[in-house]
Every structure is written in structure tokens, then in C-alpha cells.
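WARN retry 2 of 3 for item q-0093 after timeout on previous attempt; input resubmitted unchanged.
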Amino acid sequence: MLLSTQLITHALAAHAAAGTIFVAYSGGIDSHVLLHLCASIPTLKAKITAVYVHHGLQAEADAWAVHCQQQALRLELRFKQLRVDASPKSGQSPEEAARNARYAALQSLMQPNDVVLIAQHQADQLETVLLQLFRGSGLAGLSGIPPSKKLGYGFLLRPLLDVPKQALEAYAKSHGLHWVEDPSNQSSEYRRNFLRNDIIPLLKSQWPSLDKTVARSASHCAQAQQVITDIAQQQLASVFNPDDETLTISELIRYSSQQQKLIIRQWLQHLGLTMPSHSLLEQIQTTLLNANADRDPLIKGSSYVLRRYRNKLYCLGQVINEQAVTGIWSPTQTTFCYSCQYHLMCVPTSVGIVSDVWHHAKVEVRFRQGGEKIRLPKRSGHHALKKLYQEAGIPVWERDLQPLVYLDDQLAAVGERWISAEFYQERQNACVALRIQSNKPRMEINKVTKQKS
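OK item q-0093 returned
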């Protein structure tokens, strides 16, 4: 493909209202060519900011940052440096840690209508597809690098993805560009470098057009994957419960085994989670979908927990210990934070606890010890909380998260669900009610232990 500024304008065509155009600029030949191309478009120049992500992994990183700033100034472009912690976490490769840190840094810049341009090209696509093939990836992995994707409030674009590496090298030489060389690229210790330095040259000796043909295969896989995704989205909609983002098991098991796996994958993708392995999908089907309705099995994924309760499949954050705080709720405060995850709010209403009673009582938040009972309005007798939870279909792991509110040592309310008949009133604009709000995203639901404040 011919390397020209039209590649940039074409990639931006779908983002005509683009705000800032960030160009990821490492100082290497690829990103320098991209930056030079962008700077050659007069109508874009005022919008462009070159961004150097400082990983701190190389001794030369500080010098590279200076080089990048100088080159940006020569092109009369704005420059920004972002420092990141690229230390790998447990189970992460150094490459993955650096890549995640880099994209997280770029995402932090994004405002609505902003875009970031990345200089990945046809050879990068070839390496990615081969790596995914050797990992045993399915169609999604073999689709390779997408030309564009959502990134925070904006978009990430790869306008050079169909351009051969040789075209970038020829452009750089013809325009007299000066770039830095990362010495780690020559080390075959990393798998991508091993492919690039040792394996791909051998393959190209037999298949010279390997970059182009593998890119074409990746495109075919991407098209097929899109068809499957469209079908999976329709099937997911038939089993998905938007209120709690669960799946209805009785509807899910109507599908074939392979369709169930597609739906579960689509569900986890919708929740923004990493895709499950084939063995984990098999375990989900065997342990969760086929369990008796009265069982409460769970399966741990890489960053989440899957549980079944009655006829629903739940996806929760990893279970960790969190301290739930009991204590006195001051009448001058409208909220009470009883955990890192949740807080209670007191809101005015016409149905609930009379405001004067609320403000003149000692209000205390506690948690279940066992054996608590409550009398409900318009129902006879006292009811054990355990029975009410079962009746309301509250999953067992959420029951200890339900704060119990006592007024002058009498149980007055169970979270936002029930108010005791002794305190329940209907008075126009003269009552208060309780509401629970989450301090964190839904995917970080935690197990609670009790601690006195």
C-alpha cells in the first residue's frame, strides 16, 4: 500500500469532529514516520500532540524522551511526556505489563472526540497473528490487531496497519528522519522479538508475501468473528437481565453447548472482563449450569467469580475480605459509609420513617448476627430475616451486606428493602427512607466481615 497522508485523513474521516489528535511517539522509526506524516497535513497540525510514554525500563529512556521532544519541536508540534509504572504483576510478562501501562496512560488523556494514533504496521500484524496462532487462539485472536477501537472517551486508530515495514523505512530515509533504536529489539529473549528476528525471516524465504497474505487471513477471521458476535449479541439479549447483569439459566440451557459458550463469552466481554479459557467454559457448564437449583456453587476466573443462585448466573469481583463498619449514624449526616463498597443514604419521602422520629432517635447500623426478626406493614406476625431473604431471592453472599438500622435499639429497617411496621408511616413529605449506593463499580462486590467502629 502506498504510504501517504491520505492514510491519516482516511482513518480520521469517521471522526470528523476529532478534538485533540494524540500521536503515540516512542522515537523509533515507525512512530516517527507516523508523526511526520501527520505534521505534513496543514489542517491537522494545530490539533496534534506527540506523546512519549516513559516506561523507565531502559537506561536510555531519559535520552529518548529528550530526543522525542526535540523532534516534536522541529515539526512545530506540542509534546507531552507520561511516566508509567511498567512493573509486571504476578503472572504478567514484561511485554504485557509495558503494553497495559502504555495504553492506560494514553487512555487517561482521552476526552470526548479525541483520538490517539498508533504506528503499528503490516509486520506487527503478522507477528500478532502468529503469536495468537501459537497460543491456540480462536477467531477473535486470529483476527489480529483491529484498525480502530474505543479507548476511554475517545478512539485509538492505526492508520498504517496495511503498510509494509519496508515502506516506512523508505519514507524515513527519503525524508532524512532521525530516530532512536531500542537495543532490546535485537534480543530474542522476548517471544515477539524471537519471531521477528529468527523465525519470520526463514518463513519469508519461502513465502515472500507473508505479511500481506497473513493480514488478509486476519481480515477474513475478523469478518467471520463479527458475524458470530452479532449472533451472540442477539442470543445474549434473550437470556440477559439488565437490572443485575445476570443470565437466566433456564433460558441459557435451551441453547446448544457451543452456543452457551458463545453467549457466556459475549456476556463477560460485555462486562469488560478477560475471556475465559476453554477449560473454564467447560467448568462453568458442568459445575454451574448443570447444578441443582438449591446449590450455591462458585468458580473463580482470572479476575472475577461466577456463582449460581436459583435460576441466575452471577458474575462478581474477586472475593476479598472487607471490613463492614457498624456504628452510630449521626442525625446531622445524610449518609453512612458502612464499607468501602457501599453507603446508606437518608432521603426525604412521603412513605417511610417519620422524620421527627428519625432525627430524635439514636440511629445505629449493625449487621446480621442470626435470629433477627421483623414485623412488616400489612403482614401479620414477625418474620425471620433469613426467610425474608429467601422469599425475596437475595443471593446468600449478599445477605451479610444488608445493613440493619436500629432506632433506640429497635430494628427499624433492613437496608432499603423493609421498614418495620412499628416505624412505618405514610405522611406527605414528612418521612425519610433509606437508599443504598455503591462507592465502586458493580464488578468489585466483596465478602464482608464485621468490625465494630
